[in-house]
Structures are given as structure tokens and as C-alpha cells.
Write a structure and sequence with these properties.
Elements lengths: L5 E5 L4 H12 L3 E6 L9 E4 L5 H15 L4 E4 L14 H29 L2 E6 L3 H4 L5 H21 L4 E8 L5 H4 L3 H9 L9 H12 L10 E4 L8
Parallel strand pairs: 1-2, 1-4, 2-3, 4-5, 5-6, 6-7
Helix pairs in contact: 1-8, 2-3, 3-5
């Protein structure tokens, strides 16, 4: 039986974030999610916050700490895309994506680390993407932000690894979400050809890996990149 923890997931109102919150709840944890709009799953505490706003994040953490206790597990999942070919990508397209996906993770980890240092325990999990190390045409901004999470986790591991705190990256491949469901059948089939597993992952398959990483059995894993991509990004 894994110890029950207080967990905060950013961007927990839809997609993978929502599935992560559901899995943590099912495993018996106290779960809060941040969302700019919408709500996390039933049984979770939803707090309003934008990860690009340090003051809003601080207030969100304070609310979670008051209502559920100090945050012991943080999952930095909130992210955006602004896909565009390099020649057409504006400075704003680049900086917005990097500030949300990478800067947001930095702000969340920095705020979470305060309580973790006090408790001498913490699990930091950053949700990256196969694109972070594999690359993606039209995704210079997104790929840069997602590969940056690897350097973040590994530096945090070197700084805080002696204090009972781990920091790891989970890199999902193609996931069955509303977005992939809208792709034309032919395009879906083409994508699946490039995946050794021959299918997309369910959001729950990613969530279960994250819950395991946060648990007692994964205490000696830190600075790792765990791919959940059906073999798509092998060798990275």
C-alpha cells in the first residue's frame, strides 16, 4: 500500500491532466488541480491559477496547503502549443509557449520545493513529450520547451536529491484525446504506422506511470526520462 499524499497537478481540468488526477484519486491520494477554467474530476479540489503568474500560483498553493495539507507530489502538466513553421513563427509564438511550458514548470517546482524541503520528502514529475527529444516539424517552440524540462529535472535532482526529493520527466507519445480523435482516419493510420506498438496510448496509461513514479516504490529514481510512447522515440 502506497502512503497517501497531497498531490497538485497543473492543468488538471482536461485531457492527460484530468486522467492523472483521476488515477491519483483512485489510488487514495488527496488531489488538487490548477485550472484557468473548468474543473478537475469529482473528489479533487480545483484552484484557479495560470502557471505564467507566480503570484496566482502562490495563492493556489496556499489554498491547497490550507485545505489538504503541504503539497508532497507535484505534477507539472499545464502546457500550450502554437505550432508554426520556423519561418512563420513570431517571437511571441515562441516566448509564450516556452514561458507556459518551461517557465510554468519552473515556477511550480520552485514554489513546491519550499514545503518539500521542510518535509524532507517530495516527488516532482514534469510532463514532457516524445517531441522534446525526437523533434517535430512546425514545433520548434514546443519541442524546445519540452526538452528544457529534462535539464530542469536533472538540475533539481542534483540540488535537492539529498533531501528525499526526486524529480523526473514523463514523455508521452501520441495519446487518445479529443485532439487526436479529430484527425482524419487516413492521418491517424499514417501516425500509427510510425509507432511500433501500432496504436495511440490511452491517457490512463500515461497517468498510471505518473502515479507509480510518485509512489513509495520509485524513491530511488530521479533525473530520469520515462517514455510512454509505444516505442516511437526509441534511442532518445
Amino acid at each position: 500500500m502506497t502512503t497517501s499524499r497531497t498531490v497538485l497537478i497543473t492543468g488538471g481540468n482536461r485531457g492527460i491532466g484530468f486522467a492523472i488526477a483521476e488515477e491519483f484519486l483512485a489510488a487514495g491520494h488527496r488531489v488538487a488541480v490548477t485550472a484557468r477554467s473548468g474543473d478537475g474530476p469529482r473528489g479533487s479540489l480545483t484552484v484557479r491559477a495560470d502557471v505564467t503568474d507566480a503570484a496566482a500560483l502562490d495563492a493556489a498553493f496556499a489554498q491547497v496547503e490550507r485545505e489538504l495539507g503541504p503539497v508532497e507530489v507535484v505534477v507539472a502538466n499545464a502546457g500550450i502549443t502554437r505550432d508554426m513553421l520556423l519561418m512563420r513563427m513570431s517571437d511571441e509564438d515562441f516566448t509564450q509557449v516556452v514561458d507556459t511550458n518551461l517557465g510554468g514548470a519552473f515556477r511550480v517546482v520552485k514554489r513546491a520545493s519550499k514545503g518539500m524541503l521542510k518535509a524532507k520528502f517530495g516527488r516532482i514529475i514534469l510532463v514532457s513529450s516524445v517531441v522534446g527529444l525526437f523533434g517535430g516539424a512546425g514545433q520548434v517552440n514546443y519541442a524546445a520547451s519540452k526538452s528544457g524540462l529534462v535539464g530542469l529535472a536533472r538540475s533539481v535532482t542534483r540540488e535537492l536529491g539529498g533531501r528525499g526529493i526526486t524529480a523526473n520527466v514523463v514523455a508521452p507519445g501520441f495519446i487518445e484525446t479529443d485532439m487526436t480523435a479529430e484527425l482524419p482516419e487516413a492521418q491517424q493510420a499514417e501516425y500509427k504506422k510510425s509507432i511500433p506498438a501500432g496504436r495511440f496510448a490511452s491517457a490512463a496509461e500515461v497517468a498510471k506511470v505518473i502515479v507509480w513514479l510518485a509512489g513509495d516504490d520509485a524513491g530511488y529514481i530521479s533525473g530520469a526520462v520515462l517514455p510512454v510512447d509505444g516505442g516511437l522515440g526509441m534511442g532518445h
